[in-house]
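Hi all, posting the design record for the shared folder.

TITLE: backbone redesign
STEP: 1 of 1
STRUCTURE INPUT:
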């Protein structure tokens, strides 16, 4: 989620935000004169960055999504912090001096913040790894901790380098296939991560030009080498388990191998990329090990 290219006028304060890496934010830009002391995040991807770069005392609230085990990478930490359901009333009660919002945050709440003079920064969705790293830097600058942003970026870059395959490695065709048949399409951050980690996103093989739902029948008719699907969770069989055990997939076992890719890693960048890289590297290594075993 990169910052949209626009200037948000809130309560007489012009909060300048850069856009999608085209106009990088210079050091100190987009910051209030004094580092904010009460920051509210209304977006789960911004939550993940905020807990890494801000002082705990600066965090007035995270989004309620951050507390969900299945969908969040910071659930344990998030449950120790206040949260909101994105209503304007909740945000106002917290008396924030900075609100981090996303393109999918409540429009009604965002409009209310503007009317009430609360400084807010609106972020979009990154399509590349570089844009995602720029987002980390921008959030860190907004909360007055630019050095932590740079340190986090260095950690992410090191993790990506450690997880990527050796130069010249032949990429494996793969499909990220999530609940409801949701497929991560070309031109997305996940697409960029798959490419860097030794996969070729086969979504375009089915004519997809964006992330959307794909019928399982099409996957069976033209299977990729690797199907990446979610992990099981306690209780009744998950959607991921039902898909992986679908009888139709048994017919293409020789042409398709399956690997686990947790759904909570699909939608966010920033520090989540560390776990995403590791999960993709594990999947690649498991598939290659299976292939060697079959050949042996």
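Okay, here is what came back for every position:
SEQUENCE:
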């Amino acid at each position: 989620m990169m910052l949209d290219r626009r200037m948000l006028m809130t309560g007489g304060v012009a909060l300048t935000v850069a856009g999608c890496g085209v106009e990088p934010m210079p050091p100190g830009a987009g910051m209030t004169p004094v580092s904010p002391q009460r920051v509210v995040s209304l977006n789960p991807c911004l939550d993940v960055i905020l807990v890494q770069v801000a002082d705990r005392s600066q965090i007035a609230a995270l989004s309620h999504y951050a507390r969900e085990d299945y969908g969040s990478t910071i659930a344990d930490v998030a449950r120790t912090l206040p949260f909101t359901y994105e209503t304007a009333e909740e945000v106002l009660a917290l008396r924030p001096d900075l609100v981090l919002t996303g393109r999918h945050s409540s429009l009604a709440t965002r409009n209310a913040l503007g009317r009430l003079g609360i400084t807010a920064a609106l972020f979009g969705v990154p399509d590349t790894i570089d844009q995602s790293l720029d987002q980390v830097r921008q959030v860190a600058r907004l909360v007055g901790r630019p050095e932590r942003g740079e340190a986090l970026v260095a950690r992410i870059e090191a993790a990506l380098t450690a997880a990527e395959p050796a130069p010249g490695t032949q990429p494996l065709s793969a499909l990220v296939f999530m609940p409801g048949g949701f497929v991560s399409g070309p031109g997305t951050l996940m697409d960029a991560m798959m490419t860097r980690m030794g996969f070729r996103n086969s979504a375009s093989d089915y004519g997809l030009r964006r992330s959307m739902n794909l019928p399982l029948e099409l996957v069976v008719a033209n299977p990729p080498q690797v199907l990446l699907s979610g992990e099981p969770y306690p209780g009744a069989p998950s959607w991921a388990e039902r898909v992986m055990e679908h009888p139709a997939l048994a017919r293409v076992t020789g042409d398709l191998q399956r690997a686990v890719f947790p759904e909570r890693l699909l939608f966010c960048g920033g520090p989540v990329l560390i776990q995403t890289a590791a999960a993709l590297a594990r999947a690649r290594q498991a598939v290659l090990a299976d292939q060697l075993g079959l050949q042996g």
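COMMENT: Residues 6-160 form a domain with the Rossmann fold fold (CATH 3.40.50.1980).
Let me know if anyone wants the other runs.
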